[in-house]
Design brief:
By secondary structure, this protein is mainly α. The chain has 5 helices and no strands. The C terminus is likely disordered.
Length: 141
């Protein structure tokens, strides 16, 4: 068997494999989508189990906020009262978002950047005073 015949044979196998892949592409995509869906479902169920302490903390803080508003109604305007309660809900929404964002962690890059070396040795800079990240930015855990 010479080289040309070997290359022709390999090319034929490649074309045949591509033709089969194109022919069965809907089934392949359906299977991959099903597997990914089950994986995401399992991860979401695991995250739901971690949700109870967050909701308990939310209820405690919301109750304290409403008690403060009730004890001192003349100190806060109605707009400030609404903003205080909305702040509690927003904080809880962010915590729950972080919890469920782990479901897509393998598909989307959700992590803090690696710590970089300080660009200034003589004076303290943002690299030393803030969390790891790019100059001037801080990344919450």
């Amino acid at each position: 068997m010479n080289v040309k015949a070997g290359l022709t044979f390999c090319r034929h196998l490649g074309y045949r494999a591509m033709w089969q892949a194109k022919k069965h592409a809907p089934e392949i995509c359906l299977a991959i989508g099903g597997i990914a869906g089950v994986g995401c479902l399992v991860t979401a169920c695991r995250s739901t189990l971690k949700m109870e302490p967050i909701l308990e903390h939310h209820n405690k803080v919301l109750k304290e906020t409403k008690e403060i508003i009730e004890k001192q109604p003349d100190k806060f305007t109605p707009t400030q009262q609404k903003r205080m309660v909305a702040g509690v809900y927003a904080s809880t929404a962010i915590q729950l978002g972080k919890l469920y964002a782990q479901c897509t962690q393998h598909h989307v890059w959700i992590s803090r950047p690696q710590q970089q070396k300080c660009h200034s040795v003589r004076s303290p800079c943002c690299c030393r005073t803030q969390n790891p990240g790019v100059r001037g930015r801080s990344y919450a855990a």
